[in-house]
């Protein structure tokens, strides 16, 4: 937005306003009003988001452009306005945890409680406020109730008593004798044995343990129990005991006993009120935690953590309808369901009757009080129900603000659980908070997906070579969701060589993406005609001089020749490629380097460099966004990458990429501020640490690769039993890739990577399809191969990305096979 447009001199651009509008709390921008001397005397509202927090219920249009003294008379000249002024003058933020407010506005008294946070914004303040009237009123009510309870305790008649451990005699006060309905006795003495007979038998063991612990530790103890009075009636009492010390030894006990029968009678009501208050506080914390959540998994993890924090439930799951098919995509809170069960229910068709699909299909909540109720309602799920520790479950539909059901939230308990009106209301409120967070996430994801679809559409790969596996990853910077100029490409040449490249066009946005697309397409054609990598860059350089925006573009280019086991490489102003040989040696390829594209210079670019690329070798090409960080030398980033690759080089490429991004980007102190493009190429072959194979999507090829894998496993000395189990599991994964991922299209390929690591085998089978097993396949009699893989290995993971589906198997090695 231009300065002054709906901002009265403040520079509030459109994206900034949209970001503030997405915040659930009230956000206000106020401009300082100064007198002739420059002193701040008032503030004017210049912009605010749509959150309704005005005490008098006025709209934002009624507030923007007006002064605080005019809108809220009681604040004029007060401490809050003075605090805002201090923020402007000192830059120190202002935080008011609780601000009571009373005023008369338009002849009508208004009041409430608010939180206020203010920070300096240009010549004014940016204020965030939340209406906490209900929460603060509840807190004050609770404080009053506690004070009244304390007063009642002081006024209540408490019976006192004292035990002499040496004589085993108990001395009771008159009030204690009344509690026990004993005849008044001036001495009030009776034996411990006689008193013990008046303790309810069901409570006697617990009371005894409490008193024994007090004697042993010297720490006071409190215990609620029942007493059987001399007249036969039963009272609920609370006994407090404190050790009596003499010379450091416990010689007796003194304490009080209070009749709490009336309190116990109303305990259920008090507990319900407590649950309501705790739930309200937990819900407020959850809403705060979900503000700005960036994924559905983050949302359900926050819900799960909320349950752990208040100790009310043990598990949380959420299902969200897929936008283009009747499938419920499910996300699970950590730790409660076995991973293989999560994999089966990850994508559940709506025509399969499960807890969440029923709530979505009917639009009604589902309350399962105990395990018997679960089995009765869902007999087809009996095996899964019996394999979990969840005794009770509740499922609440998720509704859009428009009212339509688009998912369901499930909460589970590890004990039988009743569902009263308060519990049902709390679950409904939680579902509303979760639904709003998911809707906000959907809006954000829509913006991301448009940019991502455009970028990935420009960066599509289709390499079907049986000589090398090529995988790539593009990630935009966290600072923006715009498309950018980073790119990658891989082309299989007619003679079997494979050309790969990464490049970085200066700038961002559509213009940079347009230039990127032109250069990428040109390089793809050039690669088919050039003699080597340097020749390709020279030709591309000439083309770049005629492409707007291409000046200073950097490129790294390599031509892999599996027949000669070599790679020709060159770079124009770009970070060097990283090579890992089959023995794990890691080095940067420094040869063939020159200046960026599109720069006029009489110099000739150097020839391409050639390096040995033996079978099973790894080549990484990447843009500088992976290694450059503000305030840090580029050499530090390059060394960090080299170290990470040295540790993880023989992992399947999907896992290797994840390890690289986890170590280079995902840490808080290493957040990337630029786009990243990465290409990884691994040639077919075998070494003691790695087996790599590629076959066409033909059923008979599964047998061929199994024979080659068997020979490799025997060569590394793997014991027969785990070897046969791994062969069978990998065979099932290959068969699935051929049948489901490639649908037996002989032009497509299936890639197999098996890494031998410390005490473990990690195997990956990837194809070009996008599929997941899902619970539907199991009910239809399919998906048994997935169950077989689960039984034969320690872990099975199924992931999809823009290049296809990857099945990863993990198996621990016996000591003799390591």
Low-confidence stretches: 1-5, 775-782
| Alpha-beta classification | alpha+beta
| Major β-sheet annotation | 6 strands, antiparallel
The best one-word shape is: globular
As a percent range, the share of strand residues is 25-35%
Terminal CA distance reads 64 Å
pLDDT averaged residue by residue: 83
- Number of helical runs? 24
Helix content: 25-40%
Number of strands: 34
Strand order of the largest sheet: 8-7-6-11-10-9
Query: Rounded to an integer, what's the Rg over CA atoms?
Result: 35 Å
What would you say this structure looks like, in words?
By secondary structure, the chain is of the alpha+beta class. It contains 24 helices and 34 strands. The strands form 6 sheets. Strands 8-7-6-11-10-9 form a 6-stranded antiparallel β-sheet. The longest helix is centred in the middle third of the chain and has 38 residues. The two termini are 64 Å apart. The N terminus is likely disordered.
List keywords for this structure.
alpha+beta, six-stranded antiparallel sheet, single chain, 818 residues
Give the secondary structure arrangement, pairings included.
Blueprint: H1 14-21, E1 26-34, E2 40-48, H2 60-63, H3 68-71, H4 79-90, E3 94-105, E4 108-120, E5 124-131, H5 133-155, E6 159-164, E7 169-172, H6 174-179, E8 189-191, H7 192-196, H8 204-217, E9 221-228, E10 234-246, E11 249-259, H9 261-265, H10 267-290, H11 296-310, E12 315-321, E13 327-332, H12 339-345, E14 347-349, H13 355-362, E15 366-368, H14 371-377, H15 382-386, E16 392-399, E17 405-413, H16 421-458, E18 468-475, E19 484-492, E20 498-508, H17 509-529, H18 533-544, E21 554-561, E22 566-572, E23 578-580, E24 586-588, E25 593-594, E26 609-612, E27 618-622, H19 634-648, H20 653-664, E28 676-683, E29 685-687, E30 690-696, H21 699-715, H22 720-741, E31 749-757, E32 760-767, H23 774-779, H24 784-792, E33 795-801, E34 804-812
Parallel strand pairs: 22-25
Antiparallel strand pairs: 1-2, 1-5, 3-4, 4-5, 6-7, 6-11, 7-8, 9-10, 10-11, 12-13, 12-17, 13-14, 15-16, 16-17, 18-28, 19-20, 20-21, 21-22, 22-26, 23-24, 23-27, 27-28, 29-30, 30-31, 31-32, 32-34, 33-34
């Amino acid at each position: 937005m231009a300065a002054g447009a709906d901002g009265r001199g403040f520079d509030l651009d459109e994206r900034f306003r949209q970001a503030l509008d997405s915040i659930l709390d009230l956000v206000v921008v106020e401009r300082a009003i100064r007198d002739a001397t420059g002193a701040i005397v008032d503030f004017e509202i210049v912009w605010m988001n749509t959150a309704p927090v005005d005490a008098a219920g006025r709209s934002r249009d009624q507030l923007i452009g007006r002064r605080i003294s005019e809108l809220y008379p009681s604040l004029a000249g007060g401490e809050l306005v003075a605090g805002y002024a201090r923020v402007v003058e000192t830059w120190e933020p202002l935080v008011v945890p609780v601000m009571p407010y009373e005023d008369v506005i338009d002849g009508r008294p208004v009041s409430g409680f608010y939180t206020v946070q203010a920070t300096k914004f240009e010549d004014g303040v940016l204020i965030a406020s939340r209406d906490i009237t209900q929460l603060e009123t509840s807190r004050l009510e609770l404080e009053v109730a506690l004070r009244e309870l304390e007063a009642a305790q002081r006024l209540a008649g408490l019976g006192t008593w004292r035990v002499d451990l040496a004589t085993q005699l108990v001395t009771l006060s008159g009030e204690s004798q009344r509690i026990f309905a004993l005849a008044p006795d001036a001495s009030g003495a009776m034996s411990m044995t006689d008193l013990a007979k008046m303790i309810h038998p069901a409570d006697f063991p617990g009371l005894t343990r409490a008193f024994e612990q007090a004697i042993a530790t010297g720490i006071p103890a409190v215990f609620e129990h029942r007493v059987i009075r001399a007249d036969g009636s039963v009272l609920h009492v609370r006994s407090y005991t404190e050790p009596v010390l003499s010379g450091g030894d416990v010689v007796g006990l003194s304490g009080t006993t209070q009749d709490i029968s009336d309190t116990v009678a109303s305990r259920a009501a008090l507990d319900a009120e407590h649950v309501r208050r705790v739930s309200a506080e937990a819900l407020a914390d959850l809403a705060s935690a979900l503000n700005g959540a960036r994924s559905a998994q983050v949302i359900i993890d926050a819900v799960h953590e909320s349950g752990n924090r208040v100790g009310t439930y043990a598990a949380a799951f959420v299902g969200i309808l897929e936008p283009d098919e009747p499938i419920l995509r499910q996300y699970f809170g950590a730790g409660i369901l076995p991973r293989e069960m999560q994999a089966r229910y990850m994508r559940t068709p709506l025509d399969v009757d499960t807890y969440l699909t029923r709530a979505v299909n009917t639009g009604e909540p589902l309350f399962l009080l105990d395990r018997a109720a679960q089995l009765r309602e869902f007999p087809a799920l009996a095996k899964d129900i019996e394999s979990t520790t969840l005794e009770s479950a509740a499922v609440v539909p998720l509704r859009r603000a428009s009212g339509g059901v688009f998912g369901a939230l499930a909460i589970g308990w590890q004990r039988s659980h009743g569902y009263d009106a308060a519990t049902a209301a709390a679950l409904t409120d939680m579902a509303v908070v979760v639904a709003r967070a998911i809707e906000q996430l959907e809006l954000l994801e829509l913006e991301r997906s448009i940019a991502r679809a455009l970028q990935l559409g420009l960066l599509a790969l289709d390499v079907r070579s049986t000589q090398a596996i090529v995988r790539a990853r593009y990630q935009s910077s966290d600072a923006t969701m715009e498309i950018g100029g980073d790119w990658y490409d891989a082309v299989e040449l007619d003679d079997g060589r494979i050309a790969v490249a990464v490049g970085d066009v200066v700038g961002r946005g559509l213009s940079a993406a347009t230039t990127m697309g032109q250069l990428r397409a040109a390089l793809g054609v050039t690669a088919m005609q050039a003699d080597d990598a340097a020749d390709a860059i020279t030709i591309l350089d000439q083309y770049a001089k005629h492409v707007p925006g291409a000046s200073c573009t950097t490129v790294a280019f390599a031509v892999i020749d599996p027949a000669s086991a070599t790679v020709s490489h060159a770079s124009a102003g770009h970070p060097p490629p990283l090579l890992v040989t089959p023995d794990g040696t890691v080095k940067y390829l420094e040869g063939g380097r020159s200046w960026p594209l599109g720069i006029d210079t009489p110099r000739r670019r150097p020839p391409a460099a050639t390096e040995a690329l033996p079978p099973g070798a790894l080549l990484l090409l990447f843009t500088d966004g992976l290694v450059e960080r503000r305030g840090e030398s580029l050499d530090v980033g390059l060394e960090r990458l080299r170290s990470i690759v040295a540790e993880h080089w023989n992992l399947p490429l999907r896992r290797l990429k994840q390890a690289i991004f986890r170590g280079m980007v995902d840490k808080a102190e290493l957040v990337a501020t630029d786009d990243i493009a990465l290409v990884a190429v691994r040639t077919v072959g075998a070494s003691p640490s790695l087996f790599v194979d590629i076959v066409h999507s033909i059923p008979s090829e599964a047998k061929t690769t199994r024979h080659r894998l068997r020979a490799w496993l025997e060569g590394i000395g793997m014991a027969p039993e785990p070897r046969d189990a791994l062969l069978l599991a990998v065979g099932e994964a290959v068969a699935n890739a051929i049948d489901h991922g490639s649908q037996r299209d002989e032009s497509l390929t299936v890639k197999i990577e098996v890494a031998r690591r410390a005490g473990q085998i990690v195997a990956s089978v990837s194809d070009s399809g996008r599929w997941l097993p899902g619970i539907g396949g199991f009910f239809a009699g399919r998906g048994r191969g997935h169950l077989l893989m689960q039984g034969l290995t320690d872990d099975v993971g199924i992931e999809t990305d823009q290049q296809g589906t990857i099945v990863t198997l993990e198996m621990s090695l016996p000591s003799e096979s390591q």
